[in-house]
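Protein Record: Sequence and Backbone Structure Tokens
======================================================
Scope: a single protein chain, as residues and as a discrete description of its fold.
Tokens: labelled as protein backbone structure tokens, with as many entries as the chain has residues.
Position: the record begins directly beneath this header, with no further notes in between.
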Amino acid sequence: MKRYFVVTLLFGLLALAIFLKAMYIIFVQGEYWMAVSKRFVKTNQMIEPTRGNILSADGQILATSLPEYRLYMDFMSWEKDSARLKKDQARRDSLLTTKMDSICEGMHRIFPDIDPAKFKEHLLKGRKLQRHSWPLYNKRVSYIQYREVKKLPLFRLSANSGGFHTKEYKKRKNPFGRLAIRTIGDLYGEIDSARCGLELSFDSLLRGKPGKGHRQKVLNKYITIIDQQAEDGYDVQTTIDVGMQDICEKALGDKLRELRANSGVCILMEVATGDVKAITSLTRTKDGNYYEIGANAVSNLYEPGSVFKPMAFMVGMDDGYISMNDSVDTGCGIVKMHGRYMKDHNWRNGGYGKIDVSMIIGNSSNIGVSTLVDKHYRHQPEKFVDGIYRIGVAEDLKLPIPGYAKPRIRRPLPDGSNWSKTALPWMSIGYETQIPPISTLTFYNGVANGGVMVRPRFVTAVLNKGEVIKEYPVEVLRPRMCKPEVLRNIQVCLETVTTRGVGRRINSRMFNIAGKTGTAQVWTSAGFASQYLVSFAGYFPAENPQYSCIVCIQKGAPASGSLHCGPVFKKVAETVMAQNRKMDFSSARDTLGSMKPNICPGNLVATAQVLEHLNIVYHADFSTDGDKEVWGDSDTEVGTISLKEGVGDDGLMPDLKGYGLRDALFLLEKKGLKVKVKGVGRVMKQSIKPGRLIEKGAEITLELSMPKHKKKGYPQPSQATTDSATVAQTSDSLNKQKTLVSPTAKKKTP
């Protein structure tokens, strides 16, 4: 018992001693140890979130955030003890002196604009000034460049040992360059502040929430300890179609350069949903090139000109004042109206004479429209303006694009002080009003949509890690713009424009286009200038509308909506319809010869799906079911096609012409090459010629473009057709050619 008592007493005394020591440290030495700990802890460290992506309609990245770095060198030791400081500083200086030449040559290799001799002087200057954060390069560098710098002598060491350190930024990148840049938006410099477009409208969702942390010294090295995780920004999925956006920008840009015009706008909208598939606003700069420097498509208030005439007739027909049987004698194309001359565009050629309502719109007769509107609304102009508001022309669309301006259509005051006798006739032909192009297109989209006017939609959903957290459904502004019979009359008038009227050249031989031309002088503070706004607004195919579109160009004389905007509209319409045309792969089978397809390396699961659809026998050592991607090559030299996982490497550069970007990147990255990409579409050119010996780490540039099918039997991109004879001709032509199985074919749609 005594032994147990002694042991218990000893443990009790030990516990008491520990307790007393702890109390002494807490209450007596507390301030001292708190001061010591603070020297090893850096508080209030903000953890920056990653900004969310902006996505296209099919999920392609339009804007994303990638890391970039500023490079710095710390030449001085941070040791507090004088003896250890002297020793550590001597070590740092020795390393710098020994590795100086290797560092300078390595930096020159990574950054060719760096001169090794000057860079050496730069390093010695920083050491002489005893700087802790001496900048090594005057630009921010990419993650790949940063990793290359980290491989250099001295720089590969830790920041405490070698002195090399960085400051990380999140750089906003647009993989498709300046495509739809004003719609997407951008950020101010290095401060991650949204400047315009969807970046600004959805900034609160894209930005995310920063986290909190602190830096603590552990084993003579500072590490970041996260106290509160940062919340990355949400992704925003837009309605923009990359292919259609590229089509619109190219078609408009080519025409603007041809005309040497001041600016132009092109908007493409899906009829049923109001989804804006493409929107571009190009302006000529001092260097003569055209860029998106403003949101003119939604912000510029123009007097629309003749594209307003169908709106005027819709109001008159809906009120029961105007019918398709009405006619107007336009005479020789010039009449005096309330003291001012109203002219048709062909007045020098004798005018149109007596024409009915459909040809008034078809020939865009100013006299015809203004005469009928003035006849019925002369003494009640407020009723006409009310009608314009009723059909939705003046609707505030509340678009999520900063700079959007709603239409301005003035109403007559009760005392008539702001209204003259000429105001109504000239308003009926597109003056006395200010309407942005997006609002004009919204009206024509409603006509194409059976009288249902929908709000233009730019964003469909907000995503968090791929999951939808908020949807933006189709929003109906007007379930019925007018009476059904009135709507059909307006549709007939718009079809007349391109079949028998001034827009005959615009109609396609592949399908019908309906729409209206417009020409208006541009109003300036000094009066009407020599500038004109020409336009064409409409939809296609007329018999089953899928898309609506508006093209506006501001230029000097001569000016014609049909001659200058019509070709752009037609090119966009035909190219979009050709792009959307789908053919059954089975029509490509050669029933006369042996089937031995040429299979490109790439996604073998997609390849297998195409082969199955063509009823071609193949062998694969992997499962072709599900969504898992399997990359590799094939062997067609034996009787049965064999799909082999993995791509062989003979050390030579392959011929990539015709490859999709995804397949090309797979091949090149497997061979250890750095890839730069220019353009959109398929590979047309490569900087390293096929057959050359490959050096790992070498850089190759791929130039991409949309393919132009010129072989007989293929439809031209600008010539789509639904004609059965043409389809049969195309199928027969394809049957005579060698079958090409592309691994880039989309899954489940072989």
